[in-house]
Design a protein that fits this description.
Length: 761
C-alpha cells in the first residue's frame, strides 16, 4: 500500500483528505520561478489579449489551400443540403461510404461552417476567420486553469472553489501556448477550426473531470455525473476532430497520478511480482477502477458508434501523401516514422521553418543507417528516455507527476497522427500538434523553474523567456500574414520545402488563375520534374499548353497522366479536347466516354462531347450530350447556350425558344442566355420581347459589342432606324472589327441617306 501510493501512513486516507493535503505535501513550483504574479482574472485578460494580437491580422484573409475543398466546394454548407447528411458525410462533403473518402468524420465542425455561411449570406471569409481567432483566444484563457491543475495540483477550498496553487507557472505556460507559431495553421487557416473546436471540448472535458472531485453536500468524494459529462464532452471533441477521443485516456492518467498519487514504477514492480498487497491497495475504495471503467466504456461506445457510421473501409491515401507508410521494408517504415516524430518535436522547440504542406518529396525517405538524419532520431529518443526515466524513477513525487503529465499530454494526443494504428494522409502536419503542444508547455515551464532554482541571476533568465515570447508573437504575426493569401502562403513554402512538388504545383496554379501562364508553366514543369508521376501537375500543364496551341506536347503530357492514373477523369476529358483540336475525332470521342466511365456525373465532359458532335454535324447526339450536362448541372450556362444556338442555326426556332425560356427560369440572371433567346425571338418577329431581353443583357454586361450589334440588327428589321444607328455606333466603338456590324451599319447609313433625299425632294 505504502509503495503504490507513496503515502507515509499504513492506512490509505480518504479522497477528501488527499485533496486537503495535496498542496502542503508537495513543493510549490512557483517558489523558485523567476516570473511575475498576476491575479487569475488579470492573468486571463493578458493571455486573451496577447493571443489575439498574435493572429489578429489574419481576420481579413482569403479562403486558402484546403479551405476551397472544405468550405467553398462543400455542398454540406448550403441550405439545400439536409442537415442529416452531415452525419453521413466526411469533412470534405463526400459520402463516408465512398471509396475516395478520407474518413475524416467531423460533422460538428462542418456544422459551424454551415452556420458561418448562413449568417454571412455567402462565402465571405471574414466571419470564418473571426470565429477561429475567438476560439484560439478562448482556448488560451482556459489553458490558465488547465495548467494551474497540471502544474500545481487539484485542491478545493472549504467552499468548494478550486485553488490555483501555481499562478505564476500556469500564466507562463498559458502564454507559451497562446503565442506558439506552430498554431498559426489552425488559427489563420479556416479548416484549422476542426483542431480548435476539438481542443476547446478536449479542455472542457478535462476541467469537467476535475470537477468530479469537488466534495458535494452529501459528502461524496467524487461525482459520477461530472465523470459522465467529461465523457460526453470527449465525444463532442471527437466529432470535431478525431484526436478528441484521447482526452479520456488523459483523464484516466490524471486520475491515477494526481487524484490517487500512484507511483507507476512501484505499481509495475508489484504487478510483475504479483504482490498480494495490491488486494489492499484501496483502488476500489477510492473509486479509481470504477471511474476508469466508465471512461473505457464511454470511449468504446463512442468508437463503436463512429465505426458503424463510417464503415470498415480504410481511408484512401496515395504514396505521395505519406511515402514512408508505403515502404516495403519494416525498417524503413519504422525509422522514417521516428524521424517524422523528431521533426514534430523540432517544430515545437524551434517553430521557425513552417510550411503548409510537408508531403511530395519535402522530406526524402531515410533508407539506410548511414543517413546523417539518424542523429535526429537518436536525439529524440535520448531526450524521451531521459524524461521517462525521471518520470518513473525520481524520488520526488512532484517531479514524477509533472513530467508524467507533460509526457502524457505531449504523446497521447499525438497517437492518432503517429501511423502506429492506421495510415495517415500526411508526413508532417503542424495542425496535429496543437494539442500536443500542451505537453511541451508543461515541460518547458518545469524546466524553466528548475533553471530558475539554480540560477543566481534570475532576472536575466526571466528576460530571456520574455524575449522568446516576444519573438514568438512576432513570428505568429508574420506567419499569419502569409496565411492571408494563397500567393504569399505558397511562396513562403519554397524556401522551406524546395523539393516539395506540391508547393511548386500550388504556386503554378495560383499564377495560372491570375492569368500569368508563362510563369505558371515554369512551376508546373518543376513540379513534374520533382515528381514524374504528379498527374495533377501534368493535367494543368497540358491545359495551359492546349490554350497556347502547343497541342502535341499537351497530348504527350495528358496521355502520360492517364497512363499513370487510368481513372483520372479530368485528364481523359482534357485529352479529348486536345485530340478534338487535332481533328482526331474518333480518339477524342473515346477519351470523352472513358472520362464519363470513371466519373459518371461529369457535366463538363458531356458539354465537350456535345461540341465534338456539333463539329461532326451529329446534331441529335450533340443536343443529347448538352441535355445530359444540364440535367447533371442545371446552371451549366454554356450547355444551355449551345443548345439554343444549335436549334436556332438549324431553323428550329420554336424549340430553341422553349429551351431558352427553360434555361432562363433556372438561371434568370445569365446575360448570355438573355442574348441567345433575344436573337431567337427577334427571328420569330417577337420584337418587343426580344428588345426587352437585349436591353436587360446590355444592362448586365454593357461592354459586349455583340449585344449592341444584334440589338441594332433587331431595330433595323423592326424599322427603328435611329435606335439601330445608335447601337451600331456603340458596338463599333467597343469593337471596331466586330464581324458584320460595319457592313450592316453602312447599309443603314445608305438607307437613312436615301430617306433624307426622299424627304427633301
Amino acid at each position: 500500500m505504502r509503495g503504490i501510493f507513496n503515502q507515509h501512513n499504513a492506512e490509505a486516507p480518504s479522497l477528501e483528505q488527499a485533496f486537503r493535503r495535496m498542496a502542503p505535501m508537495e513543493p510549490n513550483l512557483d517558489h523558485d520561478l523567476s516570473w511575475f504574479f498576476l491575479p487569475s482574472y488579470w492573468a486571463k485578460m493578458v493571455v486573451a489579449l496577447i493571443s489575439f494580437l498574435c493572429f489578429a491580422n489574419s481576420y481579413d484573409g482569403d479562403f486558402v489551400f484546403d479551405d476551397s475543398e472544405a468550405i467553398i466546394n462543400n455542398k454540406d454548407l448550403r441550405a439545400e443540403t439536409p442537415l442529416g447528411d452531415l452525419w453521413y458525410h466526411d469533412f470534405w462533403g463526400s459520402k463516408l461510404s465512398s471509396n475516395t473518402s478520407h474518413k475524416s468524420y467531423r460533422p460538428l465542425t462542418v456544422l459551424t461552417f454551415r452556420i458561418n455561411y448562413l449568417f454571412a449570406g455567402g462565402f465571405y471569409p471574414v466571419g470564418f476567420h473571426v470565429i477561429n481567432i475567438i476560439l484560439h483566444c478562448t482556448i488560451s484563457v482556459l489553458m490558465v486553469d488547465v495548467f494551474s491543475i497540471l502544474l500545481g495540483g487539484l485542491q478545493f477550498s472549504n467552499k468548494g472553489r478550486r485553488l490555483n496553487l501555481a499562478p505564476k507557472s500556469s500564466l507562463l505556460a498559458a502564454l507559451l501556448f497562446a503565442v506558439h507559431p506552430v498554431h498559426t495553421e489552425c488559427v489563420a487557416g479556416i479548416v484549422g477550426r476542426a483542431d480548435l473546436l476539438c481542443a476547446l471540448f478536449f479542455l472542457l472535458s478535462f476541467l469537467g473531470y476535475c470537477k468530479a472531485f469537488r466534495e458535494n453536500k452529501e459528502g461524496h468524494t467524487f461525482s459520477v455525473f461530472w465523470v459522465l459529462v467529461s465523457v460526453v464532452l470527449g465525444a463532442i471533441a471527437m466529432l470535431c476532430k478525431e484526436q478528441g477521443i484521447t482526452i479520456l485516456g488523459l483523464n484516466a492518467v490524471f486520475d491515477a497520478l494526481v487524484i490517487n498519487k500512484i507511483n507507476l514504477l512501484k505499481l509495475i514492480q508489484k504487478l510483475l511480482y504479483k504482490d498480494k498487497a495490491l488486494e489492499n491497495a484501496g483502488l476500489l475504495r477510492k473509486g479509481l477502477l470504477f471511474r476508469i471503467t466508465l471512461l473505457m466504456c464511454g470511449g468504446a461506445s463512442i468508437l463503436y458508434i463512429r465505426w458503424r457510421i463510417m464503415g470498415t473501409g480504410p481511408p484512401a491515401f496515395t504514396e505521395v501523401d505519406n511515402p514512408a507508410s508505403f515502404a516495403d521494408s519494416l525498417f524503413v517504415r519504422a525509422i522514417n516514422y521516428n524521424y517524422y516524430y523528431s521533426l514534430n518535436a523540432w517544430l515545437l522547440l524551434c517553430p521557425w521553418w513552417l510550411c503548409f504542406d510537408w508531403s511530395m518529396g519535402c522530406i526524402p525517405l531515410i533508407k539506410s543507417v548511414s543517413d546523417w538524419r539518424i542523429i535526429a532520431l537518436a536525439a529524440l529518443w535520448f531526450c524521451l528516455i531521459g524524461l521517462i526515466c525521471q518520470a518513473l524513477c525520481s524520488e520526488d513525487s512532484h517531479k514524477r507527476r509533472i513530467l508524467t503529465l507533460g509526457l502524457g499530454f505531449l504523446i497521447i494526443p499525438f497517437l492518432p497522427a503517429s501511423n502506429l494504428f492506421f495510415r495517415v494522409g500526411f508526413v508532417v502536419a503542424e495542425r496535429v500538434i496543437y494539442l500536443p503542444s500542451i505537453g511541451y508547455c508543461i515541460l518547458f515551464t518545469y524546466g524553466f523553474s528548475l533553471l530558475s532554482k539554480q540560477a543566481k541571476k534570475k532576472k536575466i533568465l526571466a528576460v530571456a523567456v520574455l524575449g522568446i515570447l516576444l519573438i514568438n508573437v512576432m513570428r505568429c504575426a508574420l506567419r499569419s500574414s502569409q496565411w492571408r493569401s494563397e500567393e504569399h502562403l505558397f511562396r513562403s513554402a519554397l524556401s522551406v520545402c524546395p523539393l516539395n512538388a506540391k508547393v511548386h504545383y500550388n504556386v503554378g496554379k495560383n499564377l495560372a488563375d491570375k492569368g500569368n501562364q508563362s510563369a505558371a508553366i515554369k512551376y508546373y514543369r518543376e513540379a513534374v520534374r520533382l515528381n514524374p508521376k504528379y498527374v495533377h501537375a501534368m493535367n494543368n500543364l497540358g491545359n495551359i499548353l492546349k490554350e497556347r496551341n502547343e497541342l502535341h506536347e499537351a497530348e504527350e503530357l495528358l496521355s502520360l497522366a492517364v497512363q499513370i492514373q487510368p481513372d483520372f477523369a479530368a485528364a481523359w476529358m482534357n485529352l479529348g479536347i486536345v485530340q478534338n483540336s487535332l481533328r482526331r475525332f474518333e480518339e477524342a470521342e473515346q477519351s470523352y466516354w472513358t472520362a464519363i466511365k470513371h466519373r459518371k456525373k461529369y457535366p463538363d465532359c458531356y458539354y465537350n462531347l456535345g461540341r465534338l458532335y456539333a463539329d461532326l454535324n451529329r446534331h441529335i447526339d450533340a443536343l443529347n450530350a448538352w441535355r445530359n450536362a444540364t440535367v447533371l448541372k442545371p446552371e451549366h450556362s454554356l450547355a444551355w447556350n449551345n443548345m439554343i444556338i444549335l436549334l436556332d442555326n438549324t431553323g428550329n426556332l420554336a424549340q430553341a425558344e422553349a429551351v431558352g425560356r427553360e434555361a432562363l427560369e433556372l438561371i434568370p440572371n445569365d446575360h448570355s442566355l438573355m442574348f441567345s433567346l433575344a436573337n431567337v425571338l427577334g427571328k420569330s418577329q417577337k420584337y418587343k420581347e426580344s428588345e426587352a431581353l437585349f436591353l436587360k443583357a446590355i444592362k448586365a454586361n454593357p461592354n459586349a459589342a455583340s449585344y449592341h450589334g444584334n440589338l441594332a440588327v433587331l431595330y433595323h428589321r423592326w424599322g427603328n432606324l435611329d435606335l439601330a444607328k445608335k447601337h451600331y455606333e456603340v458596338s463599333l466603338k467597343l469593337d471596331p472589327m466586330a464581324p458584320g456590324t460595319k457592313e450592316n451599319y453602312n447599309l443603314l447609313r445608305r438607307k437613312l441617306e436615301q430617306l433624307q433625299k426622299k424627304g427633301s425632294a
